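Q: What structure does this chain adopt?
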Amino acid sequence: MKRKSLTVMFCGGGTGGHIFPPLAVAQRLKEKHADARILFLGKKGKIEETLAVKNKFIFYDIPCCQFPEKKITDFFRFLFRTLAGIITSLKVVLREKPDFIIGSGGYVSIPGLAAGVLTGKKIYLLEQNAIPGKTNKTFSFFAKKIFAGLPLDQTTGLSAKWVLTGNPLRKTLELISRDAALSYFGLDKKLFCIGVIGGSQGASKLNDIIPESLSLMRNKDKIQVIHIAGEKHENEAKTKYANFKIRAKVSGFINEIENFYSAADVVISRSGALALSEISRYGLPALLIPFPFAAQDHQKINARLAADTGAAFCLSEEEAIPPRIADLADKILDNEELRGKMRKSWEKFYIPESTDKIIRIIEKDADVG
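A:
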């Protein structure tokens, strides 16, 4: 009997947190099912198109719009763009006939998921955070399963559908030697390396305060920094480090992110769920500064989950003043035993083989193997 071939449609994008998990699932599906048709729906010119095309997946440009703010004009723009996106997505679904649709949250996934509901397709959701966002919470009523990257807050009422799989991570996130990673950046193997990352688009607050903070360290002369600042803020961050006379490699975005994690001895980061999953993969001591305006304050909850294991320190943005950050960075640098305990503590947080767990479930539902 001839094995059934798969057609899988992914909806989502806009940020790394909404595109890297579905990309990891898509890559693994293609490895297991060479004849599978992999479709991505998203916004043209954004990160989802770049990565879909790079991986030779089929990409469809779908109209979509961010959730409205306070202005009535924003609401009508959201409504009309979303309706246009649903109509476009319906055409794609009727033409391609996907076996199932996987959404990764955010406004970019709304049209494709809505088209899936209207055509009766099986829907799965990837939820990276402890508290689902608006899109995933809405479509959870129609989803067959919600694949949770972190333990979902029990107040969401979604426990009957969620499966704790961990966040799917890019297959490029390999463990490489510290020396090789430092050589990649042209850095000194004898110096302590601090990695700073604010997410795929950078974090202006971290760009502002971290250079000054590190300049206040007692161990300033023992450190070097790799800072992913976001493409819009790269030059400004470089200038700040130069002014404070700190040896730093500043980039807007790093494609080979495995070198960043492998080179770092400690990471200062926001606490998006994907960032935490990646940090836990490498078992790096961390100082987390949650983004205070994240939906439903989910970054604070994510950070608390990590801090409760002992793997990270957590500072609110109000607490994250340069002297406090410098003091914690010195504390981590000075205490090798503490660093070892923090690295070990990530084992309580990290969930291995997340991608394969997800794929086994959807293969069973689609009756393929």
